[in-house]
């Protein structure tokens, strides 16, 4: 059997000077080409979990870690973050903090330069990456002159150009307006078409439901649910227990069922929900 | 663009950053070798064609104004008060006498500032910061040091914006920014404490980002921008070497017979700086006045 893209076994992690671990006995794995959405309330340990996958935790951000994290079959702890970046790309929350170069093309080229990609190859990859995120024609501008959504897409392009096989995005849309959010999720959809594996942390359940294959619900450092997104979001009772919400259509169908004693099949997509609803009303 | 770099198409721009760095070193060395006001003035004038060639005359003149302020101050104060002076040259109102030796001393110092300033401005305005960084790396300067230089350009506008946000936030919490001077100085603490913390947090985050972009990876690194030393650079370097040799020759063998520095030259250069300075003040006053009466723009 081929190695899984990401495999996490019995992962427990605690930050220094804290009594309780921030991650408790986490187990999950995802296959190549799958997109995983991680949801959970603030402080549940979502970012820490994501940073375990590329080795930032515990190599750069110190703490006590138990258990194993494997990426493409090899142990993360046996390699450095810089080495891991060839396989795992990481996009952070704040767009502005991720930019360090004078122009957009140099920003995209920065990561590649560190990997030692030859110049001719760089040009091709820059054009490619900027096209994927819809920033073609901006090459010579300053990254600081872009809007928040564009900056975040630039950060994504900079990671894409390094051609990792796994892409992790830690709340990439929280600073963005609805249009900016859509732009980021469209990129995520493209990743899937390219066969890349992705992890996205976000509070946007609608979009998570629409774009992710699997969803992992984290609550106080524990995995509460890990299943295909449809299955997670239709378990509304459990979602509410964890102070989370399902997408609005699912919430609507669930409330309707409760109020009128009906049994409409819950769904996370608008089209399917309409169909289900109609079939009962007839 | 956040740096002073002026993207133009010129011979000077197309020189390798390393050549230009050597040029700055050459100018600094020359300004010390030629410690004679007249020769330095000639050197300063000789540098001007390079500025014209680089097509940065206007921004150059604007930035050199500030150095001129120093020159005026040094030439006036030293000319009158420097104790090394014995031979009086001329007297202005109130019995203040400019003396020959002190004027020589002051002129050498201020021309040196102008000459070095010219070279530095020329370098900064014609060299893309990224090119400078990659040229430094080629000189075996550690990659992280080159990155620090480069990221400084990037972080200044970000800090400036954060400073504005902090100031507005503190004003919203009743921080008095329009009070007396003492009050305002006191208020620097609630301004700068958060600003420092924010900046440190940002830099911290950036360090994670860099780590994720393979910054500390061992092995060969490549750069998008190419810097290469070509025939033009060699010509330029040869020219500099030739000039340096000439300077040393001049210094060693000709200084006895060559005496260009005269009272008139010193006096005129002093008056020259005063006049330019006067123009600057007039311009400033006019601008202020225009602002007051709400004139154009």
TrEMBL record, chain A:
<dbReference type="Pfam" id="PF00005">
    <property type="entry name" value="ABC_tran"/>
</dbReference>
<dbReference type="InterPro" id="IPR015856">
    <property type="entry name" value="ABC_transpr_CbiO/EcfA_su"/>
</dbReference>
<dbReference type="GO" id="GO:0016887">
    <property type="term" value="F:ATP hydrolysis activity"/>
</dbReference>
<dbReference type="InterPro" id="IPR027417">
    <property type="entry name" value="P-loop_NTPase"/>
</dbReference>
<keyword id="KW-1278">Translocase</keyword>
<keyword id="KW-0472">Membrane</keyword>
<dbReference type="InterPro" id="IPR003439">
    <property type="entry name" value="ABC_transporter-like_ATP-bd"/>
</dbReference>
<dbReference type="InterPro" id="IPR017871">
    <property type="entry name" value="ABC_transporter-like_CS"/>
</dbReference>
<dbReference type="InterPro" id="IPR050095">
    <property type="entry name" value="ECF_ABC_transporter_ATP-bd"/>
</dbReference>
<comment type="similarity">
    <text>Belongs to the ABC transporter superfamily.</text>
</comment>
<dbReference type="GO" id="GO:0005524">
    <property type="term" value="F:ATP binding"/>
</dbReference>
<dbReference type="GO" id="GO:0043190">
    <property type="term" value="C:ATP-binding cassette (ABC) transporter complex"/>
</dbReference>
<dbReference type="GO" id="GO:0042626">
    <property type="term" value="F:ATPase-coupled transmembrane transporter activity"/>
</dbReference>
<feature type="domain" description="ABC transporter">
    <location>
        <begin position="6"/>
        <end position="245"/>
    </location>
</feature>
<keyword id="KW-1003">Cell membrane</keyword>
<dbReference type="GO" id="GO:0015087">
    <property type="term" value="F:cobalt ion transmembrane transporter activity"/>
</dbReference>
<keyword id="KW-0547">Nucleotide-binding</keyword>
<dbReference type="InterPro" id="IPR003593">
    <property type="entry name" value="AAA+_ATPase"/>
</dbReference>
<keyword id="KW-0813">Transport</keyword>
<keyword id="KW-0067">ATP-binding</keyword>
<protein>
    <submittedName>
        <fullName>Energy-coupling factor transport system ATP-binding protein/energy-coupling factor transport system ATP-binding protein</fullName>
    </submittedName>
</protein>
TrEMBL record, chain B:
<keyword id="KW-0472">Membrane</keyword>
<protein>
    <submittedName>
        <fullName>Energy-coupling factor transport system permease protein</fullName>
    </submittedName>
</protein>
<feature type="transmembrane region" description="Helical">
    <location>
        <begin position="102"/>
        <end position="125"/>
    </location>
</feature>
<dbReference type="Pfam" id="PF02361">
    <property type="entry name" value="CbiQ"/>
</dbReference>
<feature type="transmembrane region" description="Helical">
    <location>
        <begin position="60"/>
        <end position="81"/>
    </location>
</feature>
<dbReference type="GO" id="GO:0005886">
    <property type="term" value="C:plasma membrane"/>
</dbReference>
<dbReference type="InterPro" id="IPR051611">
    <property type="entry name" value="ECF_transporter_component"/>
</dbReference>
<feature type="transmembrane region" description="Helical">
    <location>
        <begin position="21"/>
        <end position="48"/>
    </location>
</feature>
<feature type="transmembrane region" description="Helical">
    <location>
        <begin position="234"/>
        <end position="253"/>
    </location>
</feature>
<keyword id="KW-1133">Transmembrane helix</keyword>
<feature type="transmembrane region" description="Helical">
    <location>
        <begin position="265"/>
        <end position="286"/>
    </location>
</feature>
<keyword id="KW-1003">Cell membrane</keyword>
<dbReference type="InterPro" id="IPR003339">
    <property type="entry name" value="ABC/ECF_trnsptr_transmembrane"/>
</dbReference>
<keyword id="KW-0812">Transmembrane</keyword>
